[in-house]
Amino acid sequence: DTEVTQTPKHLVMGMTNKKSLKCEQHMGHRAMYWYKQKAKKPPELMFVYSYEKLSINESVPSRFSPECPNSSLLNLHLHALQPEDSALYLCASSQEGTSGNEQFFGPGTRLTVL
Amino acid sequence: GESVGLHLPTLSVQEGDNSIINCAYSNSASDYFIWYKQESGKGPQFIIDIRSNMDKRQGQRVTVLLNKTVKHLSLQIAATQPGDSAVYFCAENDIAGNQFYFGTGTSLTVIP
């Protein structure tokens, strides 16, 4: 299995809602990532988990809360988002969180905040 | 056709022609580079990678060239096909390895 899967594909939420994005990989990768991508822009790193521990938080607002329940799963909990948070949220994984390891991307969740 | 990547974000080529997409990077400590292809509504897809101890790597119809002296990376696509139409991103991985830095991206349109 060489796939990263993400659910849901699309999500529409109000500013007072709480929702979660899910990501799963079964490649035995030990590093997982969340990226945010706005239209016509490159992906921007949000969080890195290495061996199920948060290793990088790129100064992301606390309304985004990541969670890594086990080595195959990565969640992103959303609460009190703003309309400007609407974007494509991409999950990726790599064998290790070190240089030289290709990141495999999921298809993304298209998030719209009303 | 050729683009400068960060400075000319769109490139149009005729089907069958070769395409060259360029990317400049700024971090001398970057030692691993990847080209990704992203089609509309999809996540980035790996095309080819190269490590800093190489200056050229070839795949199927694609070649990546790395010039560390001027911190420049290019992707050459031979015999460009309509299915190659997408946004192409270069990404650099610093030696610490924790994260990739993505370039601005170049939108490639192949004209049948």
Query: Per the principal axes of the C-alpha atoms, what is the gross shape of chain A?
Result: globular
User: How many distinct helices of chain B?
Assistant: 0
Largest sheet of chain A: 7 strands, mixed
- Strand elements of chain B, count: 11
Low-confidence sequence ranges of chain B? 2-7
Number of strands of chain A: 11
The rounded distance between the terminal residues' Cα atoms of chain B is 14 Å
Written as H for each helix and E for each strand, in order along the chain, the element string of chain B is EEEEEEEEEEE
Unreliable residue stretches of chain A: none
Helix content of chain B: under 10%
- Count of separate DSSP helical elements of chain A: 0
Question: Largest beta sheet of chain B, briefly?
Answer: 6 strands, mixed
User: Which term fits the overall shape of chain B?
Assistant: globular
The interface involving the most residues is between: A-B, 28 and 28 residues
Order of helices and strands of chain A: EEEEEEEEEEE
Q: Provide the structure class of chain A.
A: mainly beta
Tell me the β content of chain A: over 45%
Structural class by SSE content of chain B: mainly beta
End-to-end separation of chain A in angstroms reads 36 Å
Mean pLDDT of chain A: 93
- Return Rg of chain A in Å: 13 Å
Structure characterization notes:
The complex is a heterodimer of chains A (114) and B (112). With 114 residues, chain A is an all-beta fold. Chain A is 0% helix and 56% strand. Chain B is built from no helices and eleven strands. Chain B has strands spanning 2-3, 10-14, 19-24, 30-38, 45-51, 56-58, 62-67, 72-77, 86-94, 100-102, 106-111. In chain B, 39% of the residues are buried. The model of chain B is unreliable at 2-7 (pLDDT under 50). The interface between A and B is medium-sized, with 28 and 28 residues.
Describe what is shown at a glance:
The complex is a heterodimer of chains A (114) and B (112). Chain A has 114 residues and is an all-beta fold.
